[in-house]
Amino acid sequence: MDNVQVGREDISSKFFYRVNIIESIRQIFKHRDLRMRIIFTLLILLIVRLITHTPMPGVDLAALAQVFSRNQFLGLIDLFSGGSLNQFSIALMGVAPFINASIIIQLMGMALPSVEALQKEGEYGRRKLSQYTRLLTVPLALIQAYGMIALLQRSDINILGELTILKLLAILLIVTAGTILLMWLGELISEHGIGNGISLIIFAGILARLPQGLASTVALFDTSKLFEVLVFIALAVATVYFVVYITEGQRNIPIAYAGRGGGNRLYGGQSNYLPLRVNQAGVIPIIFAISLLLFPGLIASFFASARTAWLASGAQWVQHAFQDQWVYGALYFLLVVFFTYFYTWVIFKPDQVSENIQKSGGFIPGIRPGRQTVEFLSYVTNRITLAGAIFLGLIAVLPTIVQGATHIQTLTLGGTGLLIVVSVALELMRQLRAQLIMKRYDAI
What pTM, to 2 d.p., does this model score? Predict the structure, then answer.
C-alpha cells in the first residue's frame, strides 16, 4: 500500500511538468473553482491598480516626478508601496506599513513569551497575531506617511503647496484608510483567490512600471547606444537566471529514522531530508536596510537649517553623503548582509530544530543527537547564509552597477524588484501545481 501511494505521488509530481504551456492553461481553466479564483484575483488586482492611480487632490505630480528622478532611494520605497508613492495616491504608503507590522510582530516573538506562545498555538494563534498585525498597521501607516510627507516637503521642489495643519491631518487620515483598504483587499485575495494577496499587490506594482520604462527607452533610443542596450538585456537575462537559481537553491540535510517494530513485524528505518534554503530570509533584509537608511537623511533634513553651526554642517554633510550613490550603495550592501544573518538567526533556531528531530525519533547520520546536532546545523546555516547574504547585497545595489555600466537612465534593472517578481511567480506556480494535483487526485 505504501509503494502504491509513493508511486501515485511520483506520477502526480511529474504531471505539471509533462504538459505543455497551452495544455497547462487549459487544465487550469477547466476547473470552475480554480477558474473563479483566478478571475477573482485579477478583479481585485484591477481595483488595487485603480486605487494606486488615484492621486491626492492638490498634488503637483510633475514636481513629484522631478523629486523621484533625483532620488533613487524613494524609488526603492515606492517598490514596496506597490507603486502608489510616485503617484501620491490615496494609498500613499501602499502595503509597506502592513509588511513592517508583520515583521515587528514576528520579531516580538523573540522578546515576549506571550507572543511566542501564540506562534505555537496553531490556527487560533495565527488569527490572534493577524489581528495584532492589523491593529499595529494603523499607527505605523500614520507615522510612515508623516515621515514621507516631511521628507518630500524638505526638498527644494514644492509638491503640496501650503501645508496647513488641517490639510496635513486630512492627508494622513486618507492615506491611512487607503493602506487599510489595500490590506483588506490583499487578505481577500489570500482567502478567496490564488496566491498571497500582499505579495501579488507588490508584484502587480512592479510589473506596471515595465511598459513605462520600455516606452521611455524607445522614445530616447539612440543607435550609438545599441551596445549598451544589448549589455543591459544580457545582464537582465543573467540576473533572472541567478535569482531563480539562488531562490530555489537549498541544502538537503539527511534525516534518518530508526526502525520501528509493530506486533510481530519489524519495519525498516526511513530517511528524509531537512531542506535549508540558501536565501531563507527572502526580501526581509532589504526591507530592514531600506527602513534604517531612511532615518539618517530624514533626521538630517530637520537639522540642516539649525542655528547651531556645527549641527547644521553635520546635517548637511550627512545629506551629501547619502546623495553619493557609491557611499549609499556601500552602506546598503553592508546592511543587507548584516540583516540577512540577523533575520536567518531569528527564523531558524538550530536548538529547536534539533529538539524536534530528536522528539520524532530522527537523527542526522554521523552526528550525535543533542549538542553536536545543534553545532552542525549552525555551521551549515552560517555557510549557506553567507552565499545568500552576498547575493541579496548584490541584488540590492544592482541598479547602481547597471546604470554605471550602461549609462542608460530610462531602464533600471532593479534586482529587488526581480527578486520579488521571481519569488511571487514561483510561489504562484507552486500553488497552481498543488491545485492541479489535487484536482487530479479527486478525479482518481
Answer: 0.73
